[in-house]
Amino acid sequence: MQAAIYCRVSTNKETQETSLVRQEEELTALATSYGFEVVSIIREQASGYDLEREGILELLSLIKNEEIQIVLIQDETRLGRGNARVALLHCIRKEGVKLYSISSQGELQLSEADSMILQIVSMVEEYQRKLHNIKIKRGMRRAVSQGYRPERNLKNKGENAGRERKEAPVQEIVRLRSNGLTFAEIATTLCGFGYNVSKATVHRRFKEYIEKEEKE
Questions:
Q1: Is the pLDDT reported for residue 200 higher than 70?
Q2: How confident is residue 160, by pLDDT bands cut at 50, 70 and 90?
Q3: Which residues does the annotation mark as catalytic?
Q4: pTM, 2 dp
Q5: 3-state SS string over the chain?
């Protein structure tokens, strides 16, 4: 499995650099013991209460682009402090990425209180997602009643239909991605507008677009 190592200290003092080196060495050893492939090592010196950190934003980008499945940290406070810690734990866990730590000597073990808080946050987010989907369905019903025909977006109907590249509005994918939506959320939104696409298809189209832009 592919993993990223995240190391953080709170200040820019030279003495803290030793701590960063130690964290990296210990986490590299932990990754090796579990057979993880380390694809990125992120080091930063910043307050854990601050969410606007280059290192943490880089880590979240790796997660959203599905480039890693594991994050290795010294302990949960290295991710952040206070509300920032809870928010980051939730963002990482909801993407299905596992956290491993030195303090747990394996997969991170959360306290009962933290587990309860994250469960509540997940429930609230799930209801927000349901409300979002209800709004999409309501809009679709209204569009259909006014003459919109979503079946026109479907290809290869009939007995001899072969498998063909799925249609997906690339520019819309890019726009939604720039607005901070995950690939899963983009797929759900597009499905509501008649595009039969999965999270994997959306991710693939986005990567193709980025690669094309880089070549040009």
A1: yes
A2: very low
A3: 10
A4: 0.59
A5: CEEEEEEEECCCCHHHHHHHHHHHHHHHHHHHHHCCEEEEEEEEECCCCCCCCHHHHHHHHHHHCCCCCEEEECCHHHCCCHHHHHHHHHHHHHCCCEEEECCCCEECCCCHHHHHHHHHHHHHHHHHHHHHHHHHHHHHHHHHHCCCCHHHHCCCCCCCCCCCCCCCCHHHHHHHHHCCCCHHHHHHHHHHCCCCCCHHHHHHHHHHHHHHHHHC
